[in-house]
Write the structure tokens for this entry.
Amino acid sequence: MEKQHLVGKTLEELQAVAAACGMPRFAARQLAQWIYVRRVNSIDEMTNISKAHRILLAESYDVGYYQPKEAMKSVDGTVKYLYDVGVTCGVETVYIPDRQRATLCVSSQVGCKMNCYFCMTGKQGFTRNLTAHEIINQIVSVEDSDTLTNLVFMGMGEPLDNLDELLKALRILTEEWGMAWSPRRITVSTVGYRPGLRRFIEESECHLALSLHAPYPEQRAEVMPVEKSFPVKELLALFREYDWSRQRRLSFEYIVFRGYNDSLEHADALVKLLGGLPCRVNLIRFHAIPGVDLETSDMQRIEAFRDRLNERGVTATIRASRGEDIFAACGMLSTAEKQ
């Protein structure tokens, strides 16, 4: 019988494991400490659990951490990791060091259903959701895991299309019995997948980022099919039901395409669309991918777009491009050729 992994289990699930092995209820917190804080690789290392109970545990369970299959390093220090998540499945995770910060870009699915025109993951198609075990393993097993200051769920897949496993992983990351991360250090990005969006907002305190990319619905629908099912205006109406003026941040991702969405008229339309909603806009340079006839704007136009937003009361920044030479930049992750 194949063993179950302890990594990816919540405290309640670990309590059930402890009970099944005849262990006291408090043993669940001991297990969580060994797995998520001390990050041991074997049950034998859990020395404050009796040998008899360790033997029982090892009959049905293992810890479950595993190393990436490959690593590629960019000239700018960014590292892209490839993980095997099945016989024909792989996902990519990106480590981004930047002065005093170190960010990990985490994947939530093998491929993606959303099929955004400018994204290589979407062109790969969808294979399956990742489990909480596979999500947490990405965060713990990268070489520089101990240096991480921020997590962004902006890798492969649409996180809100894998909501149950996402929320489970976020609990493990932020609960005091788990890894005890502040939710203010974690951002979850979505294309605007409406099912589960309200539940995510209410069950998590992590930051939220919406991929926007155009202020006009018809234009957004050309590059993001999700607009037809879940219009951005409906999403903004939902966002306005909540208070974003405190520490939790709402942001909008905006890839700037030359001659498509980079005019000052587009900037003015974006200000009107957001309508005083407390948020920030992250402007992103487009990274060319095969088969896509879009180009990135030049930096002068991107800066003018940013300045227009800031002048009109919308906080806007330009995100630095990292890892393009190893296909690790925004929109470039794909394991289609590695499956």
